[in-house]
């Protein structure tokens, strides 16, 4: 019985049942050969005990397999959560760094011209450059701390307790900066003001009565406008940008449009396309949609639709008609605006 249990508990379930059947068959055969076709109660009990041992072993093996499967699934879910979080951090890093560095580039261009004729204006531009580079460095440092955080160290034995080093329980003093983003349309005025200070003419038009946006939609709206303005600054420096927020029942329509560069004196930079992918992903996560492309006049436009409540057919068609009738901004594509 012990041998049958061991085989059933340590091998596959089929092997356990085979071992139990073979052992039971051997016992029956021996009993029949030595007792001349008559079976005693003890023989029957022995066969039953062998089969019970096989069943218990198979059950033990099944529970062990189930625990191992749940452990694998938990590890896979944890690993996927870490990958998803790091992808989100990468998107945040792209958005914030691209924004700050685009403003640095614009301010550097501004500082170059009045350096001799207006030293005070040049000094203001240089102070702005220092401010934006400091913000970019802070964002980069926070992201690097997160990417090297203890997410991938949770299985290591003897890992140091972060509290022993005076850190929060998660071990990351800058986690709240990146993992708990508070930006949204409430900060849109400050965002537009920074671009205006950097030399990009930006106009804002709001149509309709504002509705409540969920966290993902609010963040997506802000990041889409930020990325569109950043790309307009990179691809068409100095070109005017029109931002339109169109509120309709159930949806927010975004339109951001930039014309072509007013002069060829300062060429725009080429993009990698990562920003466009990130914007589509942000809109998808918020259960919305994003589109972008060139305009006939040589500029670019980007449009987005973000829900303020569960999707309705009427609301979606109204927004699509309104948004596509308008214009939008320069996405981070491989083809810069002329």
From TrEMBL:
**So what EC number does this one have?**
2.7.13.3
In terms of Pfam families, this protein maps to: HATPase_c (PF02518), HisKA_3 (PF07730)
Write down the chemical reaction(s) this protein catalyses. ATP + protein L-histidine = ADP + protein N-phospho-L-histidine
Membrane-spanning regions, if any? 17-38, 44-62
Superkingdom classification of source: Bacteria
One of the entry's Gene Ontology molecular-function terms is: phosphorelay sensor kinase activity
Q: Domain Histidine kinase/HSP90-like ATPase: where?
A: 220-309
Q: Which PANTHER family match?
A: NITRATE/NITRITE SENSOR PROTEIN NARX-RELATED, NITRATE_NITRITE SENSOR PROTEIN NARQ
Know the name of this protein?
A: histidine kinase
UniProt source species: Pseudofrankia asymbiotica
